[in-house]
Design brief:
- Helix content is 46%, strand content 17%.
- The chain is an alpha/beta fold.
- The longest helix has 43 residues.
- The protein is elongated and about 105 Å long.
- The termini are far apart.
């Protein structure tokens, strides 16, 4: 009995081996035949005919398949296809087992590498549990039209992406997946781009709006990690920026332009410009530096602000010194003799910040700086125009420790307590502290010299304070005598 089962098992195993061997032989022959057929057709059939045959076969497969394929061409007519550009960026951020080749590149001042798909490669993505397969195709094109956009005319190949998924998910792909890719690509592109700083190009101010600004690379190293800001202020600013960029739909819902205004005020040397650079690096927004005294009218201001792209920072430094905004009811001629219609006015500026023209652009940061907040018109300071007022104060012990780490690479030293005690009693800016830390190479010597500097500065400030007090007492005394009042001082 045992022998019978053993013999039967051996027979079945032998039969299975024969079937598998035959199937493998058939598969190999079929694959070889397919390769030979492909080779023959590639060699003897014209490219147009090959493309026609492959298209017919592919269409027949698509009709029988439950899958749906969307073709996304690189160009639509003469225009770039935004969906293709976004998908190209997005697909470089994901990887799948089916991907065997990726193209890697990096440009000047670009912070990270760029990865893109290579030809005839596939990437599998999953979105809300749905499997989506991307494939990049190239096709040769001859005799491109001469009037085609130069970026396309220089190509001998036209690229296209094919997105394949089960047809029941078509609405999900169109309504959610593609918008998701567009947003992800926009954020990734913003991270990769080299930041730039722009100024007004007066020669092209009345030409093409795209040429109204001229820029150069912004390679400022300032970040929130290196700023001599107190921790609470740093966390507040970064949190406020993050909340702003996330609230597009909220701004639309409440009927407000998607912008945010910041006023940085305080003594010179307290880090206002460095904070602006840190904001630009944090958001990856370009900076547009505007000098109002160089403009002749509100019309020029309007043209420049319309020409600004979204996701940018407009900076107007020393707003109290640029244009005389204080007297909005003055006569048609200013003290300098310039006609009111030939200068930038406060009403013109406010119309962009908070009026009808404020909606001509999205996701903009507006930053004003001043050394004298008290000189500004109250109309400029109210919420909705300058939403956040940030006082850039003198250096604090926390700020000193940040500077010591930046410049000397140390977090603790026996001299720190003495230095911090003097900083608390002395009006000294972060810029002055930084200048002292730059002077020497030996840490002990640098800190000793900083102590001497703080001691002298404190003594100088005390002398100045006594001098001012004596002058005030003298003025009060002279004023009392002149008014016929003896021994009485009136203070408002």
């Amino acid at each position: 009995m045992t022998s019978f089962f053993s013999s039967s098992s051996e027979t079945n195993l032998s039969t299975a081996r024969t079937i598998i061997s035959t199937a493998a032989t058939f598969a190999a022959a079929a694959a070889a035949s397919a390769m030979i057929l492909r080779s023959v057709t590639d060699e003897f059939l014209p490219m147009e005919l090959r493309h026609y045959i492959y298209t017919k076969i592919k269409n027949a497969y698509y009709r029988l398949s439950p899958d749906l394929t969307m073709v996304i061409e690189e160009f639509e007519g003469l225009d770039n296809n935004q969906i293709y550009s976004a998908a190209e960026i997005y697909l470089g951020t994901i990887a799948s087992p089916s991907t065997r080749k990726l193209r890697v590149s990096k440009f000047d001042h670009q912070q990270t590498y760029s990865l893109t798909m290579e030809r005839d490669q596939s990437v599998t993505d999953y979105f809300k549990g749905v499997k989506l397969n991307w494939t990049l195709f190239f096709r040769h094109v001859e005799n491109l039209h001469r009037n085609r956009d130069i970026s396309a005319a220089s190509k001998t190949e036209i690229r296209s992406l094919e997105l394949t998924f089960h047809r029941k998910h078509q609405n999900l792909v169109l309504d959610q997946y593609i918008p998701f890719i567009l947003e992800e690509a926009r954020s990734k592109k913003q991270e990769l781009k080299a930041l730039r700083i722009f100024t007004v190009d007066h020669q092209n101010l009345y030409g093409n709006l795209n040429d109204a600004w001229v820029g150069t690379t912004l390679d400022h190293p300032s970040t929130f990690d290196t700023l001599a800001l107190d921790r609470d202020l740093r966390e507040f600013v970064t949190g406020d920026l993050e909340k702003f960029v996330r609230r597009k739909e909220y701004y639309k819902k409440v009927g407000k332009a998607w912008k945010r205004g910041y006023l940085l005020y305080g003594p010179p040397g307290t880090g206002k410009s460095s904070l602006i650079a840190a904001m630009a690096n944090y958001l990856h927004f370009d900076i547009y530096d505007l000098e109002l005294t160089e403009l002749n009218s509100n019309d020029e201001l309007r043209r420049l602000l319309i020409a600004m792209p979204n996701r940018s920072i407009l900076v107007i430094e020393d707003i109290d010194c640029t244009v005389e905004f204080q007297d909005r009811n003055s006569q048609s001629l200013t003290g300098s003799g310039r006609s009111r219609d030939r200068q930038v006015t406060l009403s013109g500026l406010l119309n962009f910040i908070d009026g009808l023209w404020s909606s001509c652009g999205d996701e903009r940061i507006i930053v004003f700086t001043t050394n004298h907040k008290e000189k500004l018109d109250s109309a400029l300071l109210r919420p909705g125009r300058m939403d956040v007022h940030i006082h850039m104060s003198y250096c604090t012990p926390y700020g000193f420790r940040q500077l010591a780490f930046n410049y000397l690479g140390i977090k603790e030293n026996p001299r720190f307590r003495e230095i911090e005690a003097k900083i608390e009693k002395t009006l000294v800016t972060p810029a002055e502290i930084a200048e002292q830390l730059l002077k020497g190479a030996e840490i002990g010597t640098v800190l000793e010299d900083l102590l001497g500097f703080l001691t002298k500065k404190k003594e100088s400030q005390e002398v100045e304070a006594k001098k001012r007090k004596q002058e005030e007492l003298k003025d009060d005394s002279d004023g009392s005598k002149g008014n016929g009042v003896i021994g009485t001082t009136l203070k408002l």
